From TrEMBL:
Belongs to the class-I pyridoxal-phosphate-dependent aminotransferase family. It comes from Phoxinus phoxinus (Eurasian minnow). InterPro entries: Aminotransferase_I/II_large (IPR004839), Class-I_PLP-dep_aminotransf (IPR050859), PyrdxlP-dep_Trfase (IPR015424), PyrdxlP-dep_Trfase_major (IPR015421), PyrdxlP-dep_Trfase_small (IPR015422). This is Kynurenine/alpha-aminoadipate aminotransferase, mitochondrial. The keyword Oxidoreductase does not apply.
Amino acid sequence: MNYARFLTAVSAARKPSAIRLLTELQQRSPPSLISLAGGAPNPNTFPFQSATVRVKGGQDVVLDEALMKRALQYSGSYGIPELVSWMKDLQKSLHNPPTADYSPERGQMEMCVTTGSQEGLCKIFEMLVNPGDNVLLDAPTYSGTLAALQPLGCNIMNVPSDQHGMIPGDLRKVLARWDPTDAQKPDCTVPRVLYTIPNGGNPTGASMTYERKQEVYELARIYDMLIIEDDPYYFLQFEKPWAPTFLSMDVDGRVLRTDSFSKILSSGLRIGFVTGPKPLVDRVVLHIQASTMHTSTFTQIIVSQLLQNWGRAGFLTHIDGVIEFYRSQRNAMLSSADRWLRDVAEWHPPMAGMFLWIKLKDIKDTQRLIMERALEKEVLLVPGGVFNIISSDPCPYVRAAFSLSTPQQIDEAFRRLADLIKDAA
């Protein structure tokens, strides 16, 4: 693939940082290397000496004095080598990406660590999206995505979706206005980027079927588009086997995937990953070099030590426990919705994630209902309009999260919501 044609002028102009390259080189060098090159502070001057992190039902993560010095120091922009290596092995075992054995030029699978998947998304968008570009996504969508895309001055095009995600037939209709052969022409308006959340979408809870992914991927091939597979809820799928990913079917090297540990290990640690074709991931890393330099070494060390202690089997056992918790929470919310909202709203059971997308009957827009009247009833949800491309458009939906509240609180919240809807009708 000609990856250069996808890059914005800003991304194409980025050059490697010589000092950052020296940091990467020093990480791979033997202890006998004497370096007078770096401008890193001396860790002996830091006040932190060691730490022990207690782990539920498992081996503690211990940072002795030597490891603590490393955890508090600068590190390479791709991520600390042992964490990147562990995650590459995990991605290969979960997704078996065809690109794993490709040459770099052909789109070999590469990874980097980001400060949460949000940093990865922002840098991907700034790498690929020019002012005036047509960008495809299924709306409603994650408000953070809109916050990252809209200031870039692009034309965001909505592809209709339902509880099973983006509808390939509608995507085909949207793309029909262009000739696929125009995609290779300079200054063409054919969309070059398609963005989707394939599992447990925020806010809708929708999960795309494998068959739909196959159809969408084939359209991406026909029109030579890149697919951004934003999958923070991949590990919160309630039914097994988990649906195959776009990464698993990527024979061309056209999928950029973002993963997150926020939902399964810790949101505060801010650990995410970008996986995709090496020429594009390398460009993301050049942006990291010039902005955050690298994700916190301290949090990377903690996560890496935890994963090494667990092993892949231990990690997946932990995931099973997280899934069981959220499945139970989802079921509690569905039960309460059926009890209190059956006559005033409608919804589809989510197959992943932590959200229920509820359409209120006989109410055209939920903005004022939620932002003003709901507070009086002491119940708070998110009005659906904030997830639309044009947030001021009337929207009859609300998003309810089942991640934090107890089943008893969820039940009482829906009782109050039902009263609120009946009063407003």
